[in-house]
From TrEMBL:
Domain MlaB-like STAS: 8-72
Annotated TM spans: none
InterPro entries xrefs: MlaB-like_STAS, STAS_dom_sf
Gene3D superfamilies, A to Z: STAS domain (3.30.750.24)
Name of one Pfam family that matches: STAS_2
Superkingdom assignment: Bacteria
Protein known as: STAS domain-containing protein
Source organism (scientific name): Pseudomethylobacillus aquaticus
Length: 85
């Protein structure tokens, strides 16, 4: 989830038209940059506009470190980690 693919991920998310509480599992994500955080906040903005809850599961350590560095970790709603990840 880096600048090279965030636009396509955003387009895919927008096309989903999710209107039920949802979770995004980030267990398989290995590469992140600042655009990852921007993408996550855009997903949250779109979800709230649809009056839908969204949270993230299994934030990778490098994403947690980056969000902490920018002071936004507490703004990212997270759910419980999934066992085995």
């Amino acid at each position: 989830m880096t600048m090279t693919n965030t636009q396509s991920l955003l387009s895919e998310w927008t096309a989903l038209s999710v209107d039920v509480p949802s979770a995004v599992d980030l267990a398989g994500v290995t590469d992140v940059d600042t655009s990852t955080i921007s993408l996550m906040f855009e997903w949250l903005r779109q979800s709230r506009a649809r009056d839908c809850q969204l949270h993230f599961l299994n934030l990778p350590h490098n994403l947690t470190s980056l969000a902490t560095l920018y002071g936004v970790l507490d703004l990212i709603p997270t759910g419980p980690a999934v066992a085995g990840h």
